[in-house]
Amino acid sequence: MARQMSKGTCNLCGGTFSKSAMTKHLKSCKQKEVISKTPSSGRSPRKTKTFHLVVEGRYLPDYWMHLELSANAKLEALDRFLREIWLECCGHMSAFTIQDRMYSVAPMAEFNDKSMNVKLGQVLSPGMRFYHDYDFGTTTYLALKVVSQQESQIKGGSIQVLARNELPPIPCMSCGEMATQVCTECRWSGKGGWLCDECAADHECDEDMLLPVLNSPRVGMCGYTGY
Ligand SMILES: [Zn+2]
Ligand SMILES: [Zn+2]
Ligand SMILES: [Zn+2]
Ligand SMILES: [Zn+2]
């Protein structure tokens, strides 16, 4: 099967762009937005230092987002955001790895972990790559990159999604239509497990094994049914 180029939507203009074109597009799209938002009269609005980040599934790169957030935001806020939009199933552990240091949601002194009570601006700089792991059993691995640092208007703790991938099409293993569910039992036994509604109804495994297909790198893992 020919691999399709991952596409996504720019939330600033609503346009659709390929994954590889999105960084460049956002650069020009953001500039246009700044110009259109600048008031013609008087004072310029207060700006804060922000980071433009790209986050993707480390081994599932068709799931990706471009984010903008304040350099004063803490790692724990980014962790919370990633859980809400992509990860949370049953309150598992999570940690960032930044330049060989672990920043854990529940730091353990004997492993020399740090907590997530750290501002992004203290640990990140442009061009840096870092990682986030959610659930140390059936782990979802994310890779992040600092695209740039700039001065922008952004509300204090808010995290803005600049762009996000479209749902990657996954074919049903029985009939080839778009899968809407995934059988976790088949998935772990290496039989695929992706099913459309019709084939899911006839599927031989227990109904409890079915999870919905969602636009997340955690699709089909543990008990992930969205937030
Ligand atoms: Zn745009
Ligand atoms: Zn879970
Ligand atoms: Zn089917
Ligand atoms: Zn099954």
| Overall helicity | 10-25%
Inertia-based shape: globular
Taken in chain order, the helices and strands follow as EEHEEHEEEHEEEEHEHE
Give, in spatial order, the strands making up the sheet with the most strands. 2-1-10-4-3-9-8-5-6-7
Structural class by sheet pairing and helices: alpha+beta
Strand content: 25-35%
Q: Could you give the count of β-strands? A: 13
Q: Could you list the spans in which at least 5 consecutive residues all have pLDDT below 50?
A: none
Gap between N and C termini, in Å? 32 Å
**What is the helix tally?**
5
Bound molecules: zinc ion
Instruction: Work out the radius of gyration.
Output: 20 Å
What would you note in describing this structure?
- By secondary structure, the chain is α+β, with helices and mostly antiparallel strands.
- 21% of the residues lie in helices and 30% in strands.
- The chain contains five helices and 13 strands.
- It has helices at 19-37, 75-87, 120-123, 184-188, 197-202; strands at residues 7-10, 16-18, 48-57, 64-70, 94-98, 101-104, 114-115, 129-134, 140-152, 159-165, 181-183, 194-195, 210-212.
- Strands 2-1-10-4-3-9-8-5-6-7 form a ten-stranded mixed beta sheet, with helices on both faces. The protein has a three-stranded antiparallel beta sheet with strand order 12-11-13.
- Strand 5 and strand 6 form a beta hairpin.
- The protein is globular, with a radius of gyration of 20 Å.
- The model has no long low-confidence stretch (mean pLDDT 92).
- Residues 10, 12-13, 15, 25, 29 line the site of one zinc ion.
